[in-house]
Amino acid sequence: MTERRSYTARDVELAVLRTVYDVGKFAIVKQRERPDFELAYGGSAKPFGVEITEIYANESDARLTNLDGYLQELWDGKPHRHRDDVEVLKTGPAKFLDKDGNVTGEFPVVMMEVTKIPSLPSLIAKRIDRKNGHITDYASGLTHVNLVIHDRVSHSPPSADEVFDSNIFLSDETRASLNSSSFNEVFLVSPVDGNSDQVVRPLRALALLEAGYGFMQAMTDADGNAVESWIDIHLLFIEICKGLGLDLRYVCDEKDGARAYFGGVGVQFHDNGMRLYELHNFPPPPAVDPPNLSIPADQAERLIGLGIEYFADKVFSSAFGFPAVTRLSETINAIIQAED
After folding, report:
1. CATH number of the 9-60+117-203+319-339 domain
2. Distance separating alpha carbons of residues 87 and 72, to the nearest angstrom
3. Of 317, 314, 304, whose CA–CA distance to 222 is shortest?
4. How much of the chain, in percent, has pLDDT values that exceed 90?
């Protein structure tokens, strides 16, 4: 008889939640259905939701990982549990050969053809789209919902302090899915150090950082720094992002001035560069109708065109990522110990 795990899928959801959130800072951490968690600060703060999901190379990979004893069954020569797995999960003996080609031993293997696995950005995009299809169910009674994706595909992603190209995680397909989704933020939790640790990357924030830094460089190259109005600068940024497939909201008030928001993430340009507002635990500030640009129309058209063109052959690199608040293993081990 195969020994069953001493933790459940709900336990794993809690462990993934704790990689992103310090649950001790919340007055309410309630496990539920659609979304998986309800969190709220103390006092009169209204709750927000967090949905937990996972991505795998394919459905066969998910079954192989999550069905107790399935891998051992295939090693033992037993039949596949799902008909689709027959073509994806190839089984058979691997043979050891000596220098003369003689078989000296063999052992059972389960193999999966990696060339047929979609790219990580594509898998992320499809998962966002699928979960966004249920957003009307998730949002009931909550200020907003965040999505946390547990990456079960990557084997050696960048660590929290390692510089990487954003196209490892983002593609046009991923940006389009982020843009069309109603999630305030989408977090990707990836394994590092052989899955002994995890790194968390907020994908909306990554997309906005990429756009923001590219915009500043594009404006420098195009003499856009001659634009004196900060309101005009933010309006130009919003128009350029629209040309890149990102629909940003214009926010402006007397206290903080003009900003541009992408879901629960905002950006503000100033004399010293750019400031990022990460409000994924709170509903974003209300958008307002943007004013008209004060610069001449032909100047605006030229800057917007050059800004969009700038991104055509550029790749954004950064070390944007955060160590897990609590490692997956810490939560799972605590659950196992509590049951012993």
Report:
1. 3.40.1350
2. 18
3. 304
4. 64
